[in-house]
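Example record

The entry below shows one chain as it appears in the dataset: sequence first, then structure tokens.
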Amino acid sequence: MSPIEAAADDLQDLAVLWSIGEARAHDVVEAACAALVAGLDGPALRILAGYTRAEAEYEVPDLLPVVLDELDLVFYPYGSEAGQEAGVRALAHQLLAGKLTPRELAARIHQRYGHQLPLAESLAELDDEYDIVEYGRKTSARLDAEVTAEAQRLVDGWRDRPRSR
């Protein structure tokens, strides 16, 4: 994957995480800065990258859909099933990038979606198993490995997605 593709993926992930409440607006601004440095460009992206922390909270909601459209990325409306699924995959990517532990991923997914989102069901079930690890048949290390494998499966499936709407 080229640095530009990686920056686009990172910006897409941060946009999804922001839209589900898992990232702050200034995190999106930082991702926009990194995207510019990597070689992505566009007028709206430059504006987004220039926001201060205080401005980000007010400006990201209006500008982010424009930036994503400009870069041929997808803006997922808050609460949409596609947005929820993208959120699961973005959180899985966070695990694979070393930003979350397997336990944290399973807990966040379970807390946010419960057992209501079919794509996330196996992670929610694994979170339940963490809660009974001392009584169950699996060790924490085995659960960590299963969560990591599921995260990899989710991310691999997302990489195969179409790049534009």
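Notes for this example: The two ends are 21 Å apart (CA to CA). The chain has two domains: 3-70, 81-159.
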